[in-house]
Prior knowledge:
By secondary structure, the chain is α/β, with parallel strands linked by helices. A hairpin with a 5-residue loop joins strand 16 and strand 17. The protein contains 18 helices and 28 strands.
Amino acid sequence: MTAPAREFTHDGIAFGCDYNPEQWSPDVWDEDIALMGEAGVDLVALNIFGWSHLEPRPGEYDFARLDDVIDRLHRAGIRVNLGTATASPPAWLTRRHPEILPMAADGTRRFPGGRQAYCPSSPVFRDAALKLVAAVAERYGSHPAVALWHVSNELGCHNALCYCDESARAFREWLQARYGTLDALNQAWGTAFWSQTYGEWGEILPPRATLSAANPGQALDFHRFSSDQLLDYYRAEVEVIRPRSAVPITTNFMVTAHIENLDYWTWAGDMDIVANDHYLDNRLGDPTTELAFAADLTRGLSRGEPWLLMEHSTGAVNWQPLNLAKEPGELLRNSLTHVARGADGVCFFQWRASVQGSEKFHSAMLPHAGTDSALWREVIGLGATLDRLDEVAGSRVVADVAMVFSWESWWTANTESRPSQSISYLDQVHAAYDALHAHGCAIDIVRPGADLSAYSLVVVPGLHLVSEADAATITDWIHAGGTALITFNSGIVDEQDSVYTGGYTGPFRDALGLHIEEFAPVVPGVEVSLSDGTSGRLWSERSRATTAEVVATFVDGPSAGLPALTRNTFGTGAAWYTATLPTRDAYRGLLSRIAREAGVRAVAETEGDPASLELVRRRHDDGTTYLFVVNHGADAAEVTARGRELITDEGVAGVLVVPGGAVRVVKETTGDVAGIHREEVAE
C-alpha cells in the first residue's frame, strides 16, 4: 500500500464539475468560464478523456489547447482537478494493438467505440498510457492551477473483469504469489469436486463461460485479482506522477448500487483524498436512502475524514431504462445529503451538456436550454448555499452506530449456485440501512475486522464471508458489552469460500446462542407471519436455540414453529439475530427497539415521521457542531435545535421548522448537542 502523503486543501466546500472543452470551439470557453464564475464553480476536472487530443499520433504530443484552457481557468481563479487522460485509449492504439482489447467471459473481444476498451493487465496498454502520464505530469506538475491529480476515470466501470490470455497469465502470477503451491490452491478452491484438480499452473484459466456452474472459489479469487490488478494500475500511474508533482493524487470511486467489482477497502489507503461518483439509481425502490448509504460508505472508506463527491447529476442520467428528471429542490437535497455525510466538495458531470455522443442526454450544470432555465437557477442557488456552508468544511460526522460491509461477501453471496436467487447481499444491506436511517441515527460503515470500540450498536447484515479473526472482532466486542444485530446468511463461509460446518453462522454461533441446521427460503411474493405480529419475506431457517431467548417464531411457512428472532446474552453484551428479512415497517420497528436497548439516540428530536428526514451532525475538533436536516417529505417538520441556521441566516431558539422539500443546517449552540459517542460523553 502506498501511504497517503499529501493533503488536499480547499477554501471551504468545493463546487465543481467535469469540463470537456475539446467538445467545444474556443469561442465558447470564455463564456463557459464566465458562467462558472457566476455559479460559484471553483474546481474543474479537465483532461479526463483527452488522450486522442493530446497524442493524436504515437509519440506526438499537442498540449496547445489544454495549455490554453488551464491558463484561462487559472486567470479566473478556478482550480484544476487534472486528469491523466488515460481513461480510454485512442483509435490508433487499438488499431495497432488489437490484443489490448478486453475479452468477455465467452471468449469474444470487445471492440473500440465506447470507453475503457483495454485489458487492465495488458503491458502494451500500460506502456503507452504511462508514457502519456509522464508527459502530462512533466508539463503540468508544477502549474499553479493544478490542485489535484485525477488518475484515469472510474477505473473498472466497464472492464474490471477481462478474460483474455494476458489476463490469464497475470491471474496465474497473482495466484502463485497468494498460494505458493498448487496443493494450497487446490485445497482453497475445492478442486476435488468435479475432477477440477490442477497439476500445472498453466492449466489454470480465468473463470470463462462454462456449460455448467463454475467453481465459486475460482470466481472469488478472480474478483480479488481483478480488483488488485486495477489497483496496481492506479499505483503505476501514481509512481509516474509523484516524482514530477507535489500535488495530491486520487481517482474517482463508484460507491453505488450497481458497481461491485472493486474492493474499495483495499484501495482507500492509496488515495490522498477519497473521491466518489454517485448517481441516483431509480431502478431501486428508494434511491435517496441508497444515496445516504453510499455517502456513509464513502466516508467509511475515508476513515471518517472529509471526502470529495467527484461526480453526480443535476437531473437525469442517460443510462437507465427510464431516466427520471429530478423534482424541483431535489438537486439541493441530494447535494447536501452528501455534504451532511462528510463530503467537502460537490461536483457534477458535467459543466455544459453535450450535443453529441453517448451522453448527450445526460444532465449538466449548464443544460441544453441554457441559462434561461429552472435547472440553471437551481445550480446558481446551490452554489450560493454551499458558500454559506463553507465553515463546515473540515468537520467530521458524529455516529455511534456501525454497519459492517464487505465486498467479498457481495461477491460470494451472489454466486450462481445459492439457496435463493431472489435475494442478494445488497438486499440485506439496504434493508438494514433503511431501518437505521428511519430511526434517525447516524451510521458509520466499516469493514470486517474494524475497531468497534467507539460504537453503541453494530449491525451485521448478511456477512456471508467472514474470517474467524474478523468475526472475533465482532463477538469479542459483544462479549465486552456491545449490542449487535446479525442477520441471516452471515458467517456461512470462510475467506476461502469454504462452508463452516457444525451449524450455520459458523464463528458467530456461540455469540448468537443458535444452532442453525438448514436454510428454508421463502417463495418470492409470499410473506411469512411471525408470532410477534410482524411478517418476513424471502428467507427462513430451521434452527433451535441453545442459549438464546426466542423473541418470535415463524407462525407459518417452511420453518413454522421455529425461531425467527432471537436475543442472546453473551458476556455482558447482547446478540440479536433475525432469520428472515422483515418487512419494511417490521424492520424499522425492530431496529428502533434494539437501538433503544443499546442507548442509541436519534441525532435530534423531531415531530412527525423521522423516516422522511436526513438527520446528521458534523463536528469540528474545537467542538463546533452542525446539525443537517434534509426534509424529503412534502410537509414541514419540526426538529429540536438551538443555534444559527446557516442557509437562511436565522436564529433557532429550540424548535427548527424545516419546510417540505427543504434543507436546513444549524450551527449549534455549544453544550446543547445530543447523540454523541459514549467515550466522548465520558471525556
